[in-house]
Amino acid sequence: MKLIAGDIGGTKTTLALYTPQNGPKRPLFEGTYPSRSYNSLKAIIAEFTERYEITGVDHAVFGVAGPVVGKRARITNLPWEIDAGYLQTELKIDRVSLINDLQAVAYSIPLLKDEDLLTLNTGVEAPTGPRAVIAAGTGLGEAYLTWDGSRYLAHASEGGHTEFGPTDAIELELLRYLMERFDHVSYERICSGTGIPNIYSFLKDQGRHEEPAWLAESLVREPDATAVIVNAALDSRKTCEICQETMRIFLSVLGAEAGNLALKILASGGVYIGGGIPPRLASIIRQSPFMEAYLSKGRLSSVISAFPVNLILNPKAGLIGAAHFGLDIMDTLP
């Protein structure tokens, strides 16, 4: 059997070819493409299969950044609609499956090793307890895993689009600021690649921090404001207070929402932080307010303090999970 698995995000799309013999962590071929440079997933798949001369594909599984309804999905941060039936016919693939991108990340959790993770809270893992996954990339995704008696099954959610709940005076002001600009202020408006510039603009427009001239020039020159802000916050050669404060707020809000998710599913099997942005902040996350915000749950703080919390360092978790689902999970589902 030949399987194409894909991690389809608002910024980039990664495709890889797998076989059962090699398993979900050893693809035969792999390619990454800038999502916004293509008008459809079909175009990327066609380029991928042509480049590597791939034929006779039996199955394809795509983890997509958006809700999956039936065999269709609309990508939240891309003008794409994906129809599994259409792809199956047009690309002559025997079977095409769509799962949520965070569901795909969740399916990777049982396969991750110690070197794939950074422990933020040791806790005590319940061997078959529910597991929570929250990931900040272009958007904010959430998912969870439950034990069915023999293995973990992953479940999608759109929890990143729930209403943002401030936990201090600054966050309350941030909410008011964003309410003037958006009709719905979700956690994704803050804890994501699209959200980081919102925090930055708040700090600048409210006069809380000055914007250095060199930074203003970079933000005009570079197309990716989020990358500029994150890089400036992490730059040890010069201090950028507005960028550092932006990332402090980002990590505090992300920690609070990770704690919310842990409470909602009682994630005694562990809480996993993923996406493209948090691993870039691995050098500062332990000194940030992330864990303090995670644990700040009043009378229930002692409950979630017992849950392990891990940062996913492996950038291919979503791809591994999609491949794991396609090779080992899907055919055994009822």
Q: What does this molecule look like?
A:
- The chain has 2 domains: 3-101 and 316-332, 2-Layer Sandwich (Nucleotidyltransferase, domain 5), CATH 3.30.420; 113-313, Hexokinase, domain 1.
- Helices cover 35% and strands 22% of the residues.
- The chain has 12 helices and 14 strands.
- The protein has helices at residues 41-51, 84-90, 101-108, 169-179, 196-205, 213-221, 225-234, 241-265, 282-285, 290-295, 301-304, 317-329, and strands at residues 3-8, 12-18, 29-34, 59-64, 68-69, 72-74, 81-83, 95-100, 117-121, 131-136, 140-147, 152-157, 270-274, 309-312.
- Helix 7 (225-234) crosses helix 8 (241-265).
- The longest helix is centred in the last third of the chain and has 25 residues, at 241-265.
- The radius of gyration is 20 Å and the shape is globular.
- The relative contact order is 0.17.
Task: Record keyword descriptors for this entry.
alpha/beta; Nucleotidyltransferase, domain 5; Hexokinase, domain 1; six-stranded mixed sheet; five-stranded mixed sheet; 22% strand
